[in-house]
Amino acid sequence: MSKIDESYNLKPFKPPIWLSSSLVQTSLASFKYRKRGNNKMLKAAETIILNCEDNVRLKGSYSRSKQNKSLVIFLHGWEGSQDSSYVVSCGNYLFNRGSSIFRLNYRDHGETHNLNSGIFLSTNFNEVFDAVKQAVALAGGIPTYIVGFSLGGNFSLRIARSLRDLSIKNLKHIFAISPVVDPWSAAPLVDNNYFYKRYFLKKWKKSLIKKQKFYPNLYDFNDIISENSVMLMTEKIMAQYTEFPDLKTYFDAYRVDAHDLRTCPIPISIITALDDGIIPAKDIQRLELNSNAKRIITSRGGHNGFFQSLTGPTWYDEYIKHIMNG
Q1: Whole-number pLDDT of residue 3
Q2: pLDDT value, residue 246
C-alpha cells in the first residue's frame, strides 16, 4: 500500500469549508454551469464515427488544437457522455494550453442509441480500446494521454493492464479520476445514497427507453425500469439480455485485480478521495503499483470533484497540466 499523499509537487488539495462536503463536490462535477462561456474546444469540435471491432460504431468528438502539442483522450463515467461537464471543463482547460482533445462516447451514451443493436455493458472493453487506438491515429504521432472518470477510470486502468501485451503508440500517461476498481463493492453504494440513486436511475431509465424505441423488436425494458434499485435493474438486465449467469460474474468481468497494474509500462496516476461516496478508498489502496505509478488519495474531493473554487480549475486539472508539462 502506498503512503497517502496529497501533493506530488503541487499544493495539497484543501477546499474551503463551504466546498468541503462530499455531496457538494460530487454534485458540482456534473453541474452544467461549468460548460458556459467561451469554450474554444467545443467550437473546434468535429464529430467522428469510429468503426470498431465486431462492427460496433462509436461516436467521438475531435478538437484539433492549432498548437497540437499533445492529444488527450477523455473517457466519461457511466451514463455520462462526451458532453459531461467534467469532460468538457477539463478538456477546454487543456485545449486552451495547446492540447488537441478527443472525447469518446461509449455505446448507448451521448445520444448514440441508434448506432448499435447491442446494449452497452461495462465489459465492452475491446471496442473502447479499439476506439482509443483510432483516436491516437488521428493525431499523427504526437504525445498522447488518457483521462478517465469513474467508469472511464476503470476503462483507463484496464487499458493500462492490457499494455502488458498490447501497445498504444505515443501513449505517455494514464490518469484515472475516481476510478471504479471493484464494481461489487462500488455498485451497492449507489443504491445506499438517495441522491446518487435518484440521479443514476433517472439517467439509466431514460437511456433504456431510448434504446427500446430504436430496437422495439429486440428489447422490452418495461419490467426493468419499474424497479427502484440500480442493483435490481442490473440483475434483470443480466438475466434477460446477456450470457452472464449472475450479477457477481458480470461485476468480476470488469474488476481491476490487485496485481493487474504491477507491470504496466506506462506511467499511471490514480486520484481518489477518502470521502468518495461511490468508490471505497480501500479498493484503490489494495492495488499493487510499480514505480511508474502514483496513487493520490485526498481526504476530501467527493466523486469526480476536487473543486478548489466554483470558477477556477479543479485540482486534477492542474495536476494533469503539471504532469504533461513535466
Answers
A1: 40
A2: 94
Q: What is the per-residue pLDDT for 252?
A: 97
What is the architecture of the domain spanning 17-183+257-325? Answer: 3-Layer(aba) Sandwich (3.40)
Q: CB count, 10 Å around CB of 255?
A: 18
How many Å separate Cα 323 from the centre of its chain? 19
Residues in the chain predicted with pLDDT less than 50, given as ranges, are: 1-7
Terminal Cα-to-Cα distance of the chain (whole angstroms): 25
Alpha-carbon distances of 293 from 149, 192, 261, 283, rounded to whole Å: 17, 32, 9, 16
- Cα(270)–Cα(2) distance, integer angstroms: 12
What number of CA atoms fall less than 13 Å from residue 21's CA on the CB side? 5
User: Angle at the Cα of 215 (from 212 to 221), degrees rounded to 5?
Assistant: 30
DSSP string, 136-175: HHHHTS--EEEEEETHHHHHHHHHHHHTTT---TTEEEEE
Compute CA distances 114 → 102, 127, 240, whole Å: 21, 16, 20
Give the span between the Cα atoms of 196 and 194, in whole angstroms: 6
Q: What is the pLDDT of residue 4?
A: 43
34 CB contacts (<8 Å, ≥6 apart)? Answer: 28, 85, 86, 88, 89
pLDDT at 31 (0 to 100): 87
Query: pLDDT digits over 153-207, tens only?
Result: 999 999 999 999 999 999 999 999 999 999 999 888 999 999 999 999 999 999 9
CA atoms of 39 and 101, how far apart (whole Å): 13
Residue pLDDT, tens place only, 200-227: 999 999 999 999 999 999 999 999 999 9
Q: Which cell numbers in the block locate residue 276?
A: 468518495
Quote the DSSP letter at residue 298.
E
Query: Cell numbers of 150, please?
Result: 469513474
Contact 32, 89 (CB under 8 A): no
Amino acid letter, 198: R
